[in-house]
Amino acid sequence: xxxxxxxxxxxxxxxxxxxxxxxxxxxxxxxxxxxxxxxxxxxxxxxxxxxxxxxxxxxxxxxxxxxxxxxxxxxxxxxxxxxxxxxxxxxxxxxxxxxxxxxxxxxxxxxxxxxxxxxxxxxxxxxxxxxxxxxxxxxxxxxxxxxxxxxxxxxxxxxxxxxxxxxxxxxxxxxxxxxxxxxxxxxxxxxxxxxxxxxxxxxxxxxxxxxxxxxxxxxxxxxxxxxxxxxxxxxxxxxxxxxxxxxxxxxxxxxxxxxxxxxxxxxxxxxxxxxxxxxxxxxxxxxxxxxxxxxxxxxxxxxxxxxxxxxxxxxxxxxxxxxxxxxxxxxxxxxxxxxxxxxxxxxxxxxxxxxxxxxxxxxxxxxxxxxxxxxxxxxxxxxxxxxxxxxxxxxxxxxx
Length: 400
Fold this sequence. Notes:
By secondary structure, the protein is α+β, with helices and mostly antiparallel strands. The protein folds into two domains: 230 residues, no CATH class; 142 residues, no CATH class. A hairpin with a 5-residue loop joins β2 and β3. α3 runs antiparallel to α5 and α6 crosses α14. The two termini are 22 Å apart.
């Protein structure tokens, strides 16, 4: 059987080498960062040693973990806190999504050195709230007026942001014009030819889209790095001026969509999508309460991409700051569990997913929860072992 380093290298072989090294560097930081960057290992292992209980088919984001929730402005310009990464989206057993999320609690809390008993309590609490939300049969959502605790603080911050604050760390004035700040951390310089092609492409896309026609001017574009698992895919950030409102700017993210790492291990027949980006957009629109602005799929040079308005300062829960504040942790875990169940209810009965009645029945059943906790705790130990093997190979320059 291939080693962990061999499996990782094989999975990432089609990604951009110059940026892939950044992904490996981030994965080497700790076991939780490694877990975030190796979604494919989780499903490869799940397929060969799956002792999880049966569950209804649902739409899943596929890579649910503690840092794949965040605050953003929707296309209605209101602020929300919700699941926010659907690159691996697929039609799959509901428990697969839950198992990955609960594993992330064990792996993430271990990296934060939170006591094992507190971690088990958090995992059990997540499943309690998730099941309770399913059993109620009504999807809920979080916006500023319904939020509490640290999530309320996040949404208040998003609502109070000014354009200058949004652009402060991503743009700079040069020769009298506003351009993206190339910091070789978040944003990287593009070759002139590709840069011009991208600007012309998005300009044409905007002109042919009735909703955005004649309202925007593209000022600049750069290669963008964000997250962990997706580093190495083609991804660009555009600086766009609102021509109907001079002096107002937005950032638009254009991210290449690759096949889901969940799908190869599913027996369930998946819909025939026009492109991978269409898959991501369709599932995200079903599962999120409100999608982000500019949300769409497109094709550039035979590759499919997801377009959306970019939040320059991502608001994700920093558990390192609240690890000694149990009430804050409990509130965040409660919100994440409610949002996960709500996303599954919201997307129920669509192209093969179970209807709400089946999800309600699953939520009322309690015999599967302890099995998920056992699996997640056991697999988090496997993550630590795999991380150790990866870190050793990384230090020995195997990934150079």
